[in-house]
Amino acid sequence: MNAKPNTDPGRYHAEGFCLFRDVLSTEEIEATRGELDRLIAAMPKRQVVYKDGENREVDARPEYLTEPHPKHPFWLELCRNPRVLDAVEQVLGPDLILIMSHLIVKRAGDGLPVAWHQDNTYWHSVQGTDVTTVWLAIDDTDQANGCMQVIPCTHDGYPELDKVSTGADDLLGLTVEVTNEMEEAGVCLEMAAGSLSVHDSFVLHGSDPNTSGRRRAAYTMRYANAKTVRVNTGEHWVPVYLVRGEAGKGAVNYVDIRPGRELPPPVI
Ligand SMILES: O=C(O)CCC(=O)C(=O)O
Fold it and tell me: Residues with beta carbon inside 6 Å of ligand 1?
């Protein structure tokens, strides 16, 4: 796993991912860490998470800070940050919807691994392939604190790969089985805070546990092409936001937060 991450958006479609360095400033990252610390301090003791194919009640962990954006304007504003959207536009085109987000925070020495998986097989309300995840580094990230890893080109042909139980304590409880050869082709997305990667919803990715003395915090923001992807908003668990360009003809109930629009009241 020695290959350098691809930083050329022109290779995104062939390889399934791309890294953009220094997208947010030091000040923006410091403000983001402050908001994150407030969310972590307010975490409940127990929470229900989707794990091993079903909803389960578990001890709350900062890896499970799902969907902060409808509840807190700070995170929704970050999801429509023009520099974040410029990166997404380079791989998905000018018409964009925000469909989900998730803060995945691995505490120092105690961060859960994330087994190899594809995102799309978890999102049945989302129909289409032009879907990407922005993975924003809130802390510096490297292999020791559990940076994300991607197996290039595994999205090719958009296969829907079977999942099996990991039988271990990890974020999802499920994994896609990969060969040693595939694993060796994996790329570690090491980056400084403020940089981000984008990855296709079919590409295989995951991460190791955090064995370092440093926290690893990331904010994942999930976007789709507003014209080629259809989200069933009756079934989807959070509002869908139009963030740039135009929605497709069949779009129903998207919330318009394009530049200049006021943000809607938080959904509690
Ligand atoms: O943050 C990680 O380690 C994994 C992220 C991930 O699986 C995702 O963004 O879909």
Answer: 104, 114, 119, 133, 135, 148, 205, 207, 218, 220
Contact status, residue 170 vs residue 112, Cβ threshold 8 Å: yes
CB 117 within 8 A of CB 174: yes
* Partner residues linked to 230 by β-bridges: 127
Q: How many CB atoms lie within 10 A of CB 234?
A: 8
What pLDDT does 2 receive? Answer: 66
Which amino acid type is present at position 93?
A: G
Which residue did the predictor score with more confidence, 54 or 136?
136
Cα–Cα distance between 8 and 136 in angstroms, integer? 17
CA-nearest residue for atom 7, ligand 1, is 206
What's the whole-model pTM score?
0.95
- Look at ligand 1, atom 6, and give the residue with the nearest C-alpha: 206
The residue whose CA has the least distance to atom 2 of ligand 1 is 148
Distance 206 CA to ligand 1 centre (A): 6
Neighbours of 249 (CB within 10 A): 6
Q: Which atom of ligand 1 is nearest to the CA of 220?
A: 9
Expressed in angstroms and rounded, the spacing between residue 4 Cα and the centre of ligand 1 is: 19
Domains, the chain, with CATH or none: 9-256 (2.60.120.620)
Q: Please count the other Cβ atoms lying within 10 Å of the Cβ belonging to residue 122.
A: 15
